[in-house]
Amino acid sequence: MTIKEIADVLKAHDNYEILTHNYPDGDCLGSGFALCIALQQLGKNARVITTELPQRFGYLTREVREQDFDAQFIISVDVADEKLLGINRSAYEGRIDLCIDHHGSNCVNAPARYVEAEAAAAGEIIFALAKELGVNITKGIADCLYTAVSTDTGCFRYVNTTPRTLRIAADLIELGCDSAYINKVNFETKSKRRVQLEREILENMIFCADDKCAIIYTTLEMVEGLSDDETEGIASIPREIEGVKMGITVREKPNGEYKVSARTNGDVDACEFCKGFGGGGHIGAAGCTLHGTLEGSIERLIKAAEEML
Amino acid sequence: MTIKEIADVLKAHDNYEILTHNYPDGDCLGSGFALCIALQQLGKNARVITTELPQRFGYLTREVREQDFDAQFIISVDVADEKLLGINRSAYEGRIDLCIDHHGSNCVNAPARYVEAEAAAAGEIIFALAKELGVNITKGIADCLYTAVSTDTGCFRYVNTTPRTLRIAADLIELGCDSAYINKVNFETKSKRRVQLEREILENMIFCADDKCAIIYTTLEMVEGLSDDETEGIASIPREIEGVKMGITVREKPNGEYKVSARTNGDVDACEFCKGFGGGGHIGAAGCTLHGTLEGSIERLIKAAEEML
Fold this sequence. Notes:
homodimer; alpha/beta; inorganic pyrophosphatase (n-terminal core); Diaminopimelate Epimerase, Chain A, domain 1; 2 domains; five-stranded parallel sheet; elongated
């Protein structure tokens, strides 16, 4: 379906519920609330259904009005798979009327679908849709969509960033979004506990294979009381060190397993490395699961890394 | 003068030397080499004069041809003050024919000047100039200009980023610049020594005034052998912690002094704080110099912070 056809579907219906994925991020929340505000502006009833709203994203709901209605049309945004609906899965699985997403792997079963894998963020699609719907892109909508496109691209730093992404961000700043505040909240604020965790990780970092491999780990004790939000992105720490070809992150899980993720810059095959431990993935990012002790797991990883690099 | 008038000046002359500032960054180097390639493309002789070329910026010179000529026209790019020419100051002070800059405080004395304080980077001005000159913006020029605009905006994260900045970056990606490589080199690569320094800084971080103030310090021993490049940006570490109103960085200097920089988010007056120690600056960023021991200096800072916050 085209953006115009999706817009026509949205004009023709009413009483919308907009679903986001579990562990919601800036893209699904920003896209979801932007669509909600846009639909309300068109005189429709709409609400966003999410598993949680992290405190720092509170500003996204400023222009959202609470409305009392029975849902008649279900939209999923940025949800690649119905399994990712989390606690909302049982209530909504198989009931989605329209799926809007930017994951090429999307497998949501819905009569109306708009999946554009070239979009860096679902927010790019919602921006095009809002324009097609003739919606006035208010400051509130602009804040939501800037949040969506900036967070899914690491503030325009990741390789998924395209000229279109940058031009949409330019338009949103002109439309009045508070990019300074949004960037500060999402890219320049760390909790004290997160800083402590980073310190502990750096203290315990292990270099091997002539410094071509760096290994970090987190134990249950180290991440106790930290939200998923606060532990996000730690896997990028070892990979960013100059000369490191493969960065490995080992996470102790409550069931006693160790989840391993390997990241490379593509010149070393992370997938091949993880296959040696029964795992898999892509050339640049792969994972596996180890059992036993932390020390023993790390020893096995060091040995395999030294053989491979 | 207008961009068109500057372009006319450049068309009318030949044998250019392009000056950059000391401790050269991505903006002055990217802008300088882009202008150099553009002038060479117009059939002119041109070279860039810099105090050093950090290794990670080596890619900027790929399309630059070495030319043998006697300089006849001197251009400064991104140089706010002739004092900042470093080791090249004695040879070039008072000889600059054209000054191109984006610092509102620019005080370079030159017969032709183009200073645009609204530009996030000098690279924005060079982009406009290259278009005015009718230059073919090759991959090499695009790589230089993308480096300029991305590094001076923290990859489009800082408040100086404007819609124009983002649109220029979009154009440069379409023109073939390798934004993935440039972002990786400039925003995702830390030396092992830098990582060790961050670890030591975090280990020794001091919180005071009910965690509203965080103090970090570096001793000469901690930064021994590190380049300026590798110690850049550490002052942002304490300020980024959630709840911290004022982040203070104390740097031991070879002369035995302690250079203090205070950063706030504007709700606390960093200038007032530093004035108490004979320093000054702006409401959000200020500095002062302390003497005596490190411990004594930090004690005085803690006391003043607790009184103020």
